[in-house]
């Protein structure tokens, strides 16, 4: 029974990886008629990826999610709202710095731009925008502001900035927004937001706790577009 308790979650993770791996293998071997370069390393890599993803998800459920929920529930004891917003910015900022997808994107951008857009500048710029979005999201929950009153002005701001930002910053901004929604930020920030919303009287956590990931993504887009505009000068 103990062995099944261990293998069952691992099999659930494998069911997410194996179909994608099989599709790519069929495309490579059958459709493109290209041989696998190193079958042994490929098989070992799939096994390691499965185990690594399983351990990461298990660790996240055991640490980041309950910790984020606990911090969110206890944040409201702070009397100053600006302190809560500042802490949200800091958590969002440092959480974004460890996102592997963002690092990969930043390195690709640096390579394609021949060093004109350093990867560290892009990473920290995106992290600042994500943190800003996180702060706005917590303000929305604390003040119980309707989502529409925040999302519409931010989207209009993105459209205006996109007109002034040089290419390819508009495209980079959209990709950066997606790269921030990775395995670290989503569980941590959603747990934090829902935990905070659940403790405030008169606030529905199902309505107020969700949507914060969208706000952080828009914040990342705004920061990248502003960074693009600054490069003109």
UniProtKB/TrEMBL annotation:
Source species of the chain: Wansuia hejianensis
Q: Out of the domains of life, which is the source? A: Bacteria
The major lineage groups are: Bacteria, Bacillati, Bacillota, Clostridia, Lachnospirales
Transmembrane parts of this sequence:
16-32, 82-102, 122-141, 147-165, 206-230
Q: Electron transport: is it a keyword of this entry?
A: no
Q: Does the keyword Acetylation apply?
A: no
**Listed InterPro entries:** UmpAB
Name of the protein this chain belongs to: DUF1538 domain-containing protein
Which keywords accompany this UniProt record? Membrane, Transmembrane, Transmembrane helix
